[in-house]
């Protein structure tokens, strides 16, 4: 039997954020060390590290009140943090695109009826650097989206809805097979063959 895979760093952060967003409450570290293992499967030893990572990413707020440190995060916190990063990246992307266009125009102008020059070589080198940066920014956009807790949570909801719909159709097929079998005395194998029903048809559980 294979050993159960542990949670990745991103999975721990997503589940930890769920504790805050679902309760909309304030917690001390010792409270989270009790709640996280029980409700989200995060080991007690890694709770402090996960919380600190979320604080560093500006997804969780913290404040010392008296001798105690409290942590909290509302759903809008994560959304605003991601939007701020995305907006900054988008501004840089647009500026890079404008710069790229100017460089391409300059290269076209320099190339018209002229021999290769040092200035042209410099522009070509700069064009290559800007093009690479543009590609990096596109990858950065996708990374933000893939690590967005709200986006992942929405995907989970959609997956559950699709599973429920598939199971409803499976249930309808079973009901139809039972009706045909009882009223027309047909074997399951013949029903499956005539209606192109997979022999391994079953409910989706995981």
Automatic annotation (TrEMBL):
Q: Which GO terms describe its biological process?
A: reciprocal meiotic recombination
GO molecular function ontology, one term from the record = double-stranded DNA binding
Database matches in InterPro entries = LZ3wCH, Mnd1, Mnd1_HTH
Recite the UniProt keywords alphabetically: Coiled coil, Nucleus
Identify the GO cellular component terms for this protein.
Answer: nucleus
Annotated Leucine zipper with capping helix domain ranges read: 152-204
Main localization (coarse) = nucleus
Q: Where in the cell is it found?
A: Nucleus
The superkingdom of the source organism is Eukaryota
Chain ranges of the Mnd1 HTH domain: 16-75
Family, per the entry?
Belongs to the MND1 family.
Q: What does this protein do?
A: Required for proper homologous chromosome pairing and efficient cross-over and intragenic recombination during meiosis.
In Swiss-Prot or TrEMBL terms, this protein is called: Meiotic nuclear division protein 1 homolog
Q: Which organism is it from?
A: Euphydryas editha
């Amino acid at each position: 039997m294979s050993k159960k895979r542990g949670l990745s760093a991103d999975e721990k952060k997503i589940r930890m954020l769920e504790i805050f967003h679902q309760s909309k409450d304030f917690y001390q570290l010792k409270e989270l060390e009790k709640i996280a293992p029980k409700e989200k499967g995060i080991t007690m030893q890694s709770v402090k590290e996960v919380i600190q990572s979320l604080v560093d990413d500006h997804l969780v707020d913290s404040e010392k009140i008296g001798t105690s440190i409290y942590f909290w995060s509302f759903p809008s916190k994560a959304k605003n943090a991601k939007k701020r990063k995305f907006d900054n990246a988008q501004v840089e992307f647009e500026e890079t695109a404008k710069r790229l266009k100017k460089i391409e125009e300059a290269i076209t102008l320099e190339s018209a009826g002229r021999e290769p020059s040092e200035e042209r070589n410099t522009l070509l080198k700069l064009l290559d650097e800007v093009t690479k940066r543009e590609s990096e920014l596109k990858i950065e956009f996708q990374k933000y989206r893939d690590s967005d807790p709200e986006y992942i949570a929405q995907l989970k909801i959609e997956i559950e809805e699709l599973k429920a719909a598939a199971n409803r159709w499976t249930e309808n097929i079973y009901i139809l097979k039972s009706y045909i079998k009882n009223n027309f005395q047909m074997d399951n194998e013949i029903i499956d063959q005539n209606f192109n029903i997979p022999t391994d048809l079953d409910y989706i559980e995981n």
